[in-house]
Design a protein that fits this description.
- With 376 residues, the chain is α/β, with parallel strands linked by helices.
- The chain has two domains: 2-177, NAD(P)-binding Rossmann-like Domain (Rossmann fold); 187-375, N-(1-d-carboxylethyl)-l-norvaline Dehydrogenase, domain 2 (Orthogonal Bundle), CATH 1.10.1040.50.
- 49% of the residues lie in helices and 10% in strands.
- The chain has helices spanning 10-21, 33-52, 58-67, 91-102, 120-124, 160-170, 186-189, 191-202, 208-219, 225-232, 234-247, 258-265, 293-316, 322-332, 339-346, 348-362; strands spanning 2-6, 25-29, 68-70, 82-85, 110-113, 133-138, 147-152, 174-177.
- Strands 3-2-1-4-5-6-7-8 form an eight-stranded mixed beta sheet.
- It is globular and about 60 Å long.
- Bound molecules: nicotinamide-adenine-dinucleotide (NAD).
- Keywords: Oxidoreductase.
- One of its GO terms (molecular function) is 3-hydroxybutyryl-CoA dehydrogenase activity.
- One of its GO terms (biological process) is fatty acid beta-oxidation.
- Residues 183-280, 300-376 form the 3-hydroxyacyl-CoA dehydrogenase C-terminal domain.
Length: 376
Amino acid sequence: MNVGIIGAGTMGIGIAQVAATNGCKVLVYDANAKQVETATVGLEKTLAKLVDKQKISAEKMTEILANISIATELKDFKDCELIIEAIIENKEIKTKVFTELENHVSESCIIGSNTSSISITSLGAELQKPERFIGIHFFNPAPLMPLVEVIPSLLTDKSLPDKIYNLMKEWGKTPVIAKDIPGFIVNRIARPYYGEALRIVEENIATPEQVDDAMKTLGNFKMGPFELMDLIGVDVNFSVTTTVYKEYFYDPKYKPSLLQQRMSEAKLHGRKTGKGFYDYSEGAEKPVPQKDEVLYDDIFHRILSMLINEAVEAKRLGIASDEDLELAMQKGVNYPKGLLQWGKEIGYDLVSEVLENLYDEYQEDRYRQSPLLRRM
Ligand SMILES: NC(=O)c1ccc[n+]([C@@H]2O[C@H](COP(=O)([O-])OP(=O)(O)OC[C@H]3O[C@@H](n4cnc5c(N)ncnc54)[C@H](O)[C@@H]3O)[C@@H](O)[C@H]2O)c1
């Protein structure tokens, strides 16, 4: 298959690697020619490391690199059967690229976008042939994270989601099909993991290290919310939350945190700037959390109940099948189990009670329960 990738940044080059590893001929284009070079050199280094670790053979590395070529203009995409766009997260710029692209590609060429937060329908509607357009949302790092959310717009051809779903399976990914709603599956359902954790710290109920410790020890999460925000980038996480909040017409459930805004303003972005909720400079020691059984239990149940409530609401709205909702959280953000299953295990009555108590205390719509929760 001839695949085109537009944008050779973090995601674009990762997706190119996935396609090339699976035998596709891949053309990569970036508006910044230097970026393609940097990305290709980076990819060579990544592959060489995989050879050193005996994860792939030297022949496979040669094959992958031979499958990737550089395009110097969008015209070069004329023979592509599938093009995945992974450029800057800006609707106007993406639309401009699609408009030009459609002048060069064949009638049957499928165009996908890796956007995290722009409505697929709003992008697709600007195309001459909106039925060929679909969201294909990989997670970072694309070669390692199994999940791919496949998101048809209201105008996408009805047969296209299954086609892309099957292709992603062939590429060794775990695809799920999601409705075109802000945050799709993962970035919507996971919001309370960060939002509620930030709130707990903002209200001086606990420290970041206590929240992280509680979620890891009681919930078996691989990383606590603050460790994860530092990894993702505090600024990036803040921007996703802000977008989701606006796109849901300012639903208080997704209200961003002032603490996170201040951290972003201060460029305390986490690992990439050397300091976030934790200090990553040389010799810095991670604070040791003060263990507190009752507090940990409260933190864990508060955050988990908010997450389960989100999953139940997503089920109620038919954002994806139950199976896909469960898979998405496990394969996209490494949750130790699906949230619907988790709700069953701890008891939906308990989840409902935790939310009711929070609502009683705060009198905020943020803690409203999904109408489905009481019927679960
Ligand atoms: N980084 C993530 O964790 C992540 C995860 C999933 C999805 N996404 C989405 O993937 C897309 C790309 O994100 P990224 O993190 O790879 O960004 P990035 O900044 O690493 O790369 C974007 C690339 O696009 C290029 N570009 C900008 N305008 C262009 C144009 N008009 N034509 C061609 N190339 C252009 C830039 O030169 C840059 O190399 C965004 O839509 C983002 O929302 C990102």
